[in-house]
């Protein structure tokens, strides 16, 4: 199956991708968890179009994403490049599995921009290191390092009215959380 998908990398629409793999019996296959790590890496690094990558990621189950930081990072890069309607648990699993803070913040920023659910936004914040957690608390005024990724993250939270306001002082972003 992996070789077939890789050989049909020229498919350009969801229908073409679905047609190219529809002749296979998937009854025993639950997403990509039945593939080994090398096969998954070949799929995720196979030079596919964005639409094809989205289809492959949609086949991934949460365990496959959680089992590999490399898979999580690839999923983050694809999602950050062109967000699409994806199972929020997959993005949260990927974000929770990425050790590089800047990639994690960029992924969650993109996700927040695409979602209006405050519970999901709170879950995003709790995936980040401890110094970010108080952003989810009411009546707090946390300070985080001022850099491009953090500023975009805070701007996304502000645009969703998740926080009351923010301002920049020296090398810190001062966040004013909601009071109610």
What would you say this structure looks like, in words?
It is a single chain. The chain has 180 residues and is mainly alpha-helical. The chain has eleven helices and three strands; from the N terminus they run ααααααααααβαββ. It has helices at 2-7, 14-21, 37-44, 50-59, 62-66, 69-81, 88-96, 101-114, 118-127, 130-133, 148-159; strands at 143-145, 163-169, 172-177. It is elongated, with a radius of gyration of 19 Å.
Structural class: mainly alpha
- SSE string, helix = H, strand = E? HHHHHHHHHHEHEE
Mean pLDDT: 80
Largest β sheet strand count, sense and barrel closure: 3 strands, antiparallel
What's the count of strands? 3
Helix content: 55-70%
Question: How do the strands of the widest beta sheet line up side by side?
Answer: 1-3-2
How far apart, in Å, are the first and last alpha carbons? 52 Å
Low-confidence runs? 21-31
Approximately how much beta-strand content do the residues carry?
5-15%
Which value, in Å, is the CA radius of gyration? 19 Å
Shape: elongated
Total helical elements: 11
Please identify the oligomeric state: single chain
Provide key terms for this protein.
single chain, 180 residues, mainly alpha, 3-stranded antiparallel β-sheet, 11 helices, elongated
Compact description:
This protein is mostly helical. 55% of the residues lie in helices and 9% in strands. It has helices at residues 2-7, 14-21, 37-44, 50-59, 62-66, 69-81, 88-96, 101-114, 118-127, 130-133, 148-159; strands at residues 143-145, 163-169, 172-177.
